[in-house]
Amino acid sequence: MTIKQNAIYILIAALWTAVFTGCESFSDADGVTDIRYLSAQVTISSDTYETTGEGLTLSLTDVDKGTVIEKALTGSTIALDEILPGIYNLSVYGSTKDAEGRDIYLNGEHTNYPIVENNKKIEVEMKGSLLGPVIFKEIFFSGTANFYFRNQFYEVYNNSDETVYLDGLYFANLYPTTASTFRPIWREEDKGDYVYADRIWKFPGNGTDYPLAPGESCVISQFAANHKLPQYNPNSPVDGTSSEFEFNMNNPNYPDQPAPDMVHVFYDGKAGKGGSPQYLTSVFGGAFVLFKPLDENYDPVNDKKWQAIDQDDYYEQILAKIPYSYIWDAVEAGPNESMLKGKRVPGVLDAGMTYVGDIYNSLGVARKKIGERADGTPRLQDSNNSTNDFEHGVTPQFRRYGAKMPAWNHTLTGK
Amino acid sequence: MNVKITLRYYSVTCALLLLLSMGGAAQEADNGLSPAALEWMKINGLWRQTPNAAGMLLGDTAVYSELSAGFDTYRGSFRRPEQGDQENNLTFSAEGAEKLKKTYVWGRFDYSRQTLRGALYNASLVDPFRGMPYYVIDQNASDWNNQRYDLAFKAAYPASSKILFGIESSYKAWIGAKQRDIRVDSRFYTIDVKPSVVYSVTPRHHIGFNLHYYNLKEYSEMSVVNLYILQDAYEMYGLGNARKNAGINNGREGVYIGNNVGFGIQYAYEGAVRFLLASDFDKKVEDVQIGQMTPRDEGTVKDVQWRTRLQALYKGQTWSHAFTLEYDYRHIDGIEYVTMLNDSTGWDKLHSDVRSKYRTQRIGGGYTLFGNGSDGYRKQIGLDMMYTKKQDDYLLPASRLDYENLLLTVQAKRNYLLSARLQKRLLVGASVSYNFNLSGNYRYGGNYPDYPSVIGLMQSDIDYLSADYSLGSISATYSQRVNTHSGATAFAKATFTYSRAEEEVLGSRTYLQLSIGCNF
Question: Which pTM does this prediction carry?
Answer without folding.
Answer: 0.83
